[in-house]
Design a protein that fits this description.
This protein has 243 residues and is of the alpha/beta class. Helix content is 27%, strand content 22%. It has helices at residues 20-25, 62-75, 88-95, 177-187, 203-211, 224-241, and strands at residues 13-16, 32-37, 76-85, 116-126, 141-149, 164-167, 193-196, 216-220.
């Protein structure tokens, strides 16, 4: 049976076809400067009229995402950053009062990451694309939360970095490479490490490779098909975009 060979990538880019927790277990604690997490949320898969992401890639419950984020916090150095892609309804839900304890603001498990404090956020506005799913309005933007690992200062960004970005989406669920490349340049010193537990179609791998200057990447994608597609897309972008 013919099997597609993975596209070759630079030595600094370690993209694996494996589970997020297995990959994170191989990363020494306290060594990552930045984690970028784009969880495959299953929150809306069972609701009538909503998109079902499980038809495209394996999804995870809030509790499963929480376990991965806890492992992500462990690999961060003190002061290291975690950028978490989510959705507006998930953010509203996270801060909504619990029905059983209406007098308390009870965060959902993925928001309660030991050793991590949420400090800021940003948003990607999607140009020239079909409207997303939604009830009150059709989604056309996607938020990203920013957290910092306790125990040390994060420090100011090394370059000017805006909290918003507008671009035309590409392949399904692939986040904007240019904006994430700006994160890497601003938050990760040359030679630093970026960890990506949900690599998807490789946007973070491309961002790190294009940022260059010895920055390193390790990421995991569970779907064999998306893993192969990710490697091919990263390789193509390096050829097309590297001067």
């Amino acid at each position: 049976m013919f099997r597609q060979k993975p596209a070759p990538l630079p030595d600094a880019i370690d993209l694996r076809n494996t589970d997020a927790l297995d990959m994170l277990a191989s990363v020494p604690r306290g060594t990552a400067d930045l984690v970028v997490a784009d969880p495959p949320w299953d929150a809306y898969a069972q609701q009538a009229g909503q998109a079902d992401p499980s038809r495209i890639y394996p999804t995870q419950s809030h509790d499963e995402v929480a376990r991965v984020l806890a492992a992500c916090a462990d690999v961060l150095r003190p002061g290291g950053r975690l950028a978490l892609w989510c959705t507006w309804p998930l953010l509203v839900e996270a801060f909504a009062p619990d029905r059983m304890l209406p007098h308390m603001m009870v965060g959902r498990p993925w928001l309660q990451v030991a050793g991590l404090r949420w400090v800021s956020g940003g948003s990607w506005v999607k140009h020239e694309c079909p409207p997303g799913v939604g009830y009150h309005w059709r989604g056309h933007s996607e938020p990203v939360l920013l957290g910092v690992r306790a125990g040390g200062p994060a420090g100011r960004a090394a370059t000017v970095l805006r909290s918003g970005h507008a671009s035309t989406p590409g392949a399904h669920s692939r986040k904007p490479v240019s904006w994430q490349q700006a994160w890497v340049k601003a938050w990760v010193d040359p030679g630093g490490l970026v960890v990506d537990p949900y690599a998807g179609l490789g946007s973070v791998a491309s961002a790190v490779a294009l940022a260059g200057r010895g920055r390193r990447y390790v990421g995991a994608e569970l779907s064999a098909d998306r893993y192969l597609r990710a490697r091919a897309m990263v390789r193509r972008e390096l050829v097309e975009l590297t001067p």
